[in-house]
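Let's do one together. I've listed all components of the complex below, 450 residues spread over two lines.
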Amino acid sequence: MKYAFFLGCTIPARARNYELSARKVAETLGIDLIDVDRFMCCGFPIKAADRHAATLMAAFNLAVAGEKGLDVCSLCSSCASQLAEASHHLSLDDAEKARVNERLLAAGLAYNEAPRVRHFARVLFEEVGAEAIKTHFKKDLGGLRIAVHYGCHYLKPSSIHDRFDDVEDPTSIESLVALTGAKLVDYSGKKRCCGGPVLPVDEKLALSVAKEKLDSLAEAGANALCLVCPFCSVMYDGNQKGIESEFGVSYNLPVLYLTQVLGLAMGLDRKELGLNMNVVKTKELLEGIAE
Amino acid sequence: MGTIDLDKSDSNFLEELADQPEAAMIKACFTCRTCVAGCPISAVNKAFSPARIIRMALLGLKDVVLKSDFLWLCSTCYTCQERCPQGVRITDFMTLLKNMAIREGFAPSGIRAQLKLVTGDGRIYPIDDFDNKKRTKAGLPVLPTSCEDIKKLFQGTNG
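Okay, and this is what the predicted structure of the assembly comes out as:
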């Protein structure tokens, strides 16, 4: 199993804990993630300003991977969605494809057959599979009560993600977490957006959106939240203290990437999984894991 | 939320929208408000309503929509688009309106700055030597600190 590893902008700069844990989990499972120096931003951050420029940037990245004969794997839900959406759009719009190719020529590239785009969690769910993942587990996470946040662009729009999971009743990430022995906590508003995209426009509004979920998680009795997108992590982990002080509430809810949860079950070292870089401290939570 | 002022209607707006695939189905909207019911933003801010934005567009209220603050509150979560019984590509339509607002000069300054940064540096968070030092320390590979390709892609465009 071999993929061009699309890191995007946020992960290498702001979510090194995600990158570290994903690389370790991939190595353990024998997934070959190839670093590609030529990759640039996926285009997602400029879609609101200029969707055609965003498509051009996505097409550039797809063409770079295509030239190497590699499919693309991303840890970020927004990158995966942006790249898959551009690929879907360009397969339907020949005029835009021609415009894109005109620009790509300047970079010595051509957009032809687009490679497949996959989120890392989808690769684990669909390609590696539960049985193979389980054979690498060394620890039982039975002491943890984990709630899952799917986020939006991991699954939506469903038309570009081949409907690999049900957008209205998703199970893919929970089925992976369940393998670790951790207890899954269901809660109201599971499919709700983190509010992250609104952060630069209206901070308080974005924080209120995130607060709704944190309230619901507290009520459901989760002792950790598991997710697969660096933007969602910014909202629930990075901004959790800010939400607590803005609204006079207290959560102290550790937020872990799926790769950190699986890595713990694989018996990987906490530092190797970047758990020391999580904003809400995980020490107390991890004491609940039997040695 | 006040009443809609039809004196501000621009009859050409619908024609302008007619060429755009993202707007193709908006006329099919029968205001069932499924989009509002599932919207994470409407849930915390009643002033935001996807159904109302579609209605305003259909009434030709171009300037009202494009100059509005609420347009930028859409979090692009796609819940409305997934659930619309009439097949309106609501989230994609919001993106189209945001793009039009930028062209008309109405966008928030942060959005414009982001466009300049990304199409200039090729990354939203450019990697510098300090980042690479931290990456090396964490056992992660060093990344390029500049992007030549982005200049080639946007040469001679305003993008």
